[in-house]
Design goal:
The protein has 138 residues and is α+β, with helices and mostly antiparallel strands. The chain contains four helices and eight strands; from the N terminus they run E-E-H-E-E-H-H-H-E-E-E-E. It has a single domain, classed as Jelly Rolls (Sandwich), CATH 2.60.120.460. The strands form two sheets. The chain has a five-stranded antiparallel beta sheet, with helices on one face. Strands 2-7-4 form a three-stranded antiparallel beta sheet. The structure holds zinc ion.
Length: 138
Amino acid sequence: MTVINDKFTVNTKGNSDITDITQMVKHSVYSHSLQNAVVHVYVAGSTVSVTNIEFEPGLLVDLPEALEKIAPSDAEYHHDAMWHDGNGYAHVRASIIGNSTMVPLIDGALQLGQWQQIVLVDFDNKARTRTVYVQIVY
Ligand code: ZN
């Protein structure tokens, strides 16, 4: 088993800012000219997520709206009472969505659907710089 570790950074605006990172992941994976591998995409941080979506304007509103119903930004959170950083909702949303995804590389191609992009969603209440790790196992 061989492991390749890659990473890149993403500057976000926070507040459920959604960034399409598909091309950055493809660049990372395809630069190694591999045929078959397990590709893990992971973001470090407890107020940010990596997931998949069809990157189109409707869903870029629908996903934040759905999460606003599940973990409203104006609700009271024990985290905020404890730490006073006002981002309890961001932590809850990130925990629900998760911070990694896996894409199989088969016969030299990442197996993403035609309308399936890999995105980073930053739920924090301010702009952040995030580090995304791409770990390729083959
Ligand atoms: Zn916090």
